[in-house]
Design brief:
9 helices; DGOK_C (chains A, B); Nucleotidyltransferase, domain 5; five-stranded mixed sheet; globular; 2-dehydro-3-deoxygalactonokinase (chains A, B); 2 domains; 14 strands; about 290 residues; homodimer; DGOK_N (chains A, B); alpha/beta
Amino acid sequence: MAGDYIAIDWGTTNRRAWRVAADGTFGEALRDSRGVLALTADDYPAELATLRARLGDLPVIAAGMVGSNRGWREVPYVDAPADLTALAAGALHLPDAGALLLPGVALRGGERADVMRGEEVQVLGALAAGLAPADALFCQPGTHNKWIATTAGQITDVATALTGELFALLRGHGILSAMLDGPVADGAAFRAGVARGAGARDLTVALFEVRARVLLDRLDAVDAASFASGVLIGADVGARSDLKGRPVQLLASGDLATLYAAAIDSCGGTALALDNERAFAAGIHRLWEMTR
Amino acid sequence: MAGDYIAIDWGTTNRRAWRVAADGTFGEALRDSRGVLALTADDYPAELATLRARLGDLPVIAAGMVGSNRGWREVPYVDAPADLTALAAGALHLPDAGALLLPGVALRGGERADVMRGEEVQVLGALAAGLAPADALFCQPGTHNKWIATTAGQITDVATALTGELFALLRGHGILSAMLDGPVADGAAFRAGVARGAGARDLTVALFEVRARVLLDRLDAVDAASFASGVLIGADVGARSDLKGRPVQLLASGDLATLYAAAIDSCGGTALALDNERAFAAGIHRLWEMTR
């Protein structure tokens, strides 16, 4: 249909693409693992051709790591505080390719430095669609968990925790790996791990305790992965001193949503489930309209 | 000579063996990477035969992971508080092999659980030889850093931090790996990392900042490994609330000794260099005499 386009959430390891109608209705979708780590910069024109063969020969708007120095073309970060208008203004138009790449957001001021690429579309989309208030705290777990704060509708803070990556590294390699091949589930062992990790200054000591507890029969080997996951997620969530009595907009689904919700509630916050696909759709469609 | 024996410090990845005279004088030595991870339980008789062919057909006393469930024969842990007498009493005699395996030490009481195998010989040896006072705090960095406290000549506390292992995992795999291939040295970047990591509850956020700082030109890529090492060692050292004005007996040599000494001094302690080979020699010879 006239005015249709393709929206892509192009991340580090995964890619999701949708055909979107001019009125913002999301249609046919495609999900695969052709993330930026699987591609070189030269691969993108052919990748777009493949996507267009599936979803229609349409213009493209893409968010995420596709705009990083590991992706197709680097799009400079927009500085926080940032809103959708700033993202739209920072977009990179590639007219020959019929594509538009969105920037990420950087936190440059103050003591800390942090960056995001992709999460900002979900967060600002959630605000625009009224799914979350203009002053909110978002938590978006994954390989890297992002804590994103908004103030008066702008992204004002971000902290990225390597939580998921560290768990994967410990599970795949090293001294704990043989003990971490069990399932991870919310339960007594996970909650005990959260209690150990929350607020801990000695995270690396807490991680070695997984081994010591198993060796000394204080933790069942089958529960070791849940305990270790609890330690890491507990440290991640418990590091925030601003959770008490605060709603946390949890952009996650499945097991990770369950685990983070449990940890957030344990640390005094209130986890509110938010549909990250719906939030992305709301954000990217507004950006599409703003960049016409 | 009559009364000579072979002393072995048999660790996870490395092995050191010495011919020792009856009076405790350490002679010819052998160092290799035939640690327990390179061996199965059935390999040990042949390994001892090889060592004896080099160092003499003598009785053997061995400490370390050789007595773990990943080693030759499991020797149950001795509980803290523990001294040399307790270690000697817990040794496993293998008369057919002409060998004696020493136990490790476990911390079972209280909230935390921790274990060690091998470090206890150095710590108690240092006390026995008068290299450190009877009430002391030891720091023994490596793949796993051990903090060991002694009270009135007994090991009363231990905390193991996965510091070195985490750095190796991050350097070998994952999002930071490409940034961490530079050298690690004490300097401004390392000290900035120590300051960021010391006392931090958000270690996994601090680690992601390595990437963000490089991307945002706040850290030279060549300094990223030193900064990351500083964050991890700073978190390890800074997690201890008991360092202010306190001497720390540092059982390390080379670069790791330099880095930990810098971090200990930054966190208000006073690092004292201790020769870990001399400490091991003093401890194992006393254990040898006590188990005759």
